[in-house]
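Forwarding the complex inputs:
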Amino acid sequence: MEQTAPIISFKGVNKVYSNGTVGLKDISFDISRGQFLVVVGLSGAGKSTLLRTINRMHEITSGEITVEDESISDYKGKALRLLRRKIGMIFQGFNLINRSSVEKNVLSGRVSYYPTWKTIFGLFSKADKEKAVHSLARVNLAEKLYTRADELSGGQQQRVAIARTLMQDPKIILADEPVASLDPLTTKTVMDTLKRLNQEDGITVIVNLHSVALAREYADRIVGLRAGQLVYDQPIGNVAEGDLDQIYQTPEGAKA
Amino acid sequence: MSTPTIPRRSWAQRYHVKGIGWTVLMLVLLVASAQMTGVNVGMFFSNLGQFTNLLVRMSNPAWDYTTVIIQPLLETIQMAILGTTIGAAFAIPFAVLSASNLIHNRWLRGLTRLFLDLVRTLPDLLLAAIFVAIFGIGSTAGVVTLAIFSFGMVSKLFYEVIETIDMGPLEALESVGATKITIIWYAVLPQILNQFISYFLYTLEINVRASTVLGYLGAGGIGVFLQRSLNEFNYNQTAVIILATLVVVLVIDGVSNHLRRVLL
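Prediction (whole assembly, two chains):
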């Protein structure tokens, strides 16, 4: 497989929380454009932190992260919002606005293309309203346009969240444990949708997963985190059956 | 069959020392405060006769007085609606600024809360007296008083509601690249709107009752007539006013109960 230019690059990134807990420790690696990267590791290994440093939902303590060859650390205000606009994010808890319609939820993914006052009055262009229908159609939920979000099942809610992300025209999608609260069948639908967006639109997808089996099924490349450190990094072709056991060793076991 | 070993409770746990201790302490405080403030419970019972006397004199309501009080009663309701609406509208931005999950700046939050505490400290009767002095006798003074009174109360109720919301949608909107105001509009407002309405109606109900008292100070509404009937010892008219106010409060209570059921 030929190596394309990196879209995201970590250079010696450290993250220490204010209470002294080490979140990330000396992380350096590149993510190439169009890759489907899966991050595996135990709870508390730093997977969520790693993901959230890319769209600056979490700040880093030292080191540098570049997105499309630009250092993102100094972004403020509008520049930060524009960075976030091109990076979609999907959450374990779906994070939809439950009392609002599916349409409003999906359109909320587009707000960063409008001035604040227009978003308040809901003045979305006709083209964007059509885009919302189109985004929903891509996750096979167009008929739910006017349904209230909390009337949908978990798997449907996660697909609405994906449609919301599509409204951003993202170059990158970050998915933080997107299937952790879903059953096996809906898990497959959601993961297939992410894979399709990755292949059809060339969106770089970074997914945090607990399940090694899922990681092996969908990833182009798997990286492993343990206690905030990058302990594993292989393209899927090189991933062997027993490899991932070492990632899941407890920190105590690793030291022993 | 072997009985499972149950962990032993300590002596204090077994005899509920804590619960009994607190109850005794509360009783002691209660008796002590009654004595220090000179409340004479005996007097309450010995003078109960006068109270029954009053009730007897009210027991024959002058129903024809109803036509006289309808207009001022409507004015009272209008004052309450106006005051509550103005107060609640101003309360929203202050509630947002006081909510610890939205405003991370401790100083800004503290300052806003201090201001709200100050507003709540001012009793409504004092406010009415001040505004009657400023605006003269009439309903303007009443509306302003009710607006400030509702503002203080509603903003506290509102920010406590805001602090219980699910933060997930806020995170999602932030990750989309939305501005702070858009985030509040899209992710906070839909979550709190129903409870806002519920608290608004509750405040309205309180304000209807409060405005009867405010009329005493000349702040308009039914209270003026309440005072007049009492001064003239026309207890049969007083009875009509009380019953009419009761009807209004019951109606508002019914409406707000219904809305709450439909909305929540």
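Chain B has one domain: 67-263.
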